[in-house]
Predict the structure.
Amino acid sequence: MPTPPILISPSVLDSDLSRLSEEVERITSADLVHLDIMDNHFVPNLTFGLPVVQRLLEHTSMRADVHLMIENPDTWAPAYAEAGAASVTFHAEASRAPVKLARELRAKGARAGIALRPATGVEPFLDLLPELDMVLVMTVEPGFGGQAFIDGVLPKIRRARAAIDELDADIWIQVDGGVTRETIGRAASAGANVFVAGSAVYRAEDPAAEIASLRELALAAWSA
Ligand code: DX5
Ligand code: ZN
């Protein structure tokens, strides 16, 4: 199985959200921009929703990687694909009909992702992998930036990667939460290829340099 693309997707959660489109301009050397949608129900935090994403996509040529931490994604997720998001990820714990939803997202031209909280197993979804383009393995409890990476989820990443290798499919594994220069190598060695980094990038003095370092460390871990 060839190495999947190594992609860096900074999360704007830790940026100055009152200047969102300018903040996105600071990370254009990244592969994607990660947009965290929170509804104060699925997670105890509230960010922004569809109208903001729609307007943001008019201002940037970056590909949007939308992470929906909301209840009832079956109803709300397809509109993000219609808005032009390159990838739309919904939580396994919140979707009632994940296969139906993934098919709908793909039909609207987006990559379909399923997200797993740290305590959610990947096993129930392994047979459904061909319906998906990405598995987001949360490496913190979703809701807030700046938390510490949970090493206990690394075996789950390894099991997901082994199943994907067996299928020989172009399915990405994303890690989100606590991804830093210190932790990214471990996530990559376990088989992750899409790396969300919020505080590491936006609290850095030079976000572009941080993105380059993270990419280099992930690539080094993959080729080791
Ligand atoms: C957390 C969000 C993350 C968050 C990551 O629930 O899904 O995308 O922004 O932030 P860091 O990289 O600071 O852990
Ligand atoms: Zn996220």
